[in-house]
Amino acid sequence: MWDLILWIIAVVIGIIGVVRLFQKQFLWGIVLIVVALLIGPGGVSLFT
């Protein structure tokens, strides 16, 4: 169950990061995408 919740949060953060990139806020965009990758499917093991 937690895996699914973390995955959904990662997708939302990733989408926000891409939107920030399109808004020319490159630093925030990159930071949010990296955070999404850490939380997402590859990063689930960090929290479990």
Detailed description of the structure:
The chain is mainly α. The chain has one domain. Helix content is 81%, strand content 0%. The protein has 3 helices and no strands. Helix 1 runs antiparallel to helix 2. The radius of gyration is 11 Å and the shape is elongated.
Summed up, the helix count is 3
The helix content is over 70%
Give the termini distance in whole angstroms. 11 Å
Q: What Rg do the Cα atoms give?
A: 11 Å
Biggest sheet descriptor: none
Tell me the overall shape.
elongated
Q: pLDDT below 50 for ≥5 consecutive residues: which ranges?
A: none
Task: Provide the β-strand percentage band.
Answer: under 5%
Elements, N to C (H/E): HHH
What is the total tally of β strands?
0
Tally of discrete structural domains: 1
Average pLDDT taken over every residue: 85
Structural class: mainly alpha
Notable traits:
about 50 residues; mainly alpha; about 80% helix; elongated
Explain briefly what this protein structure is.
Helices cover 81% and strands 0% of the residues.
Write the layout of secondary structure elements.
Elements: H1 2-22, H2 26-39, H3 44-47
Helix pairs in contact: 1-2
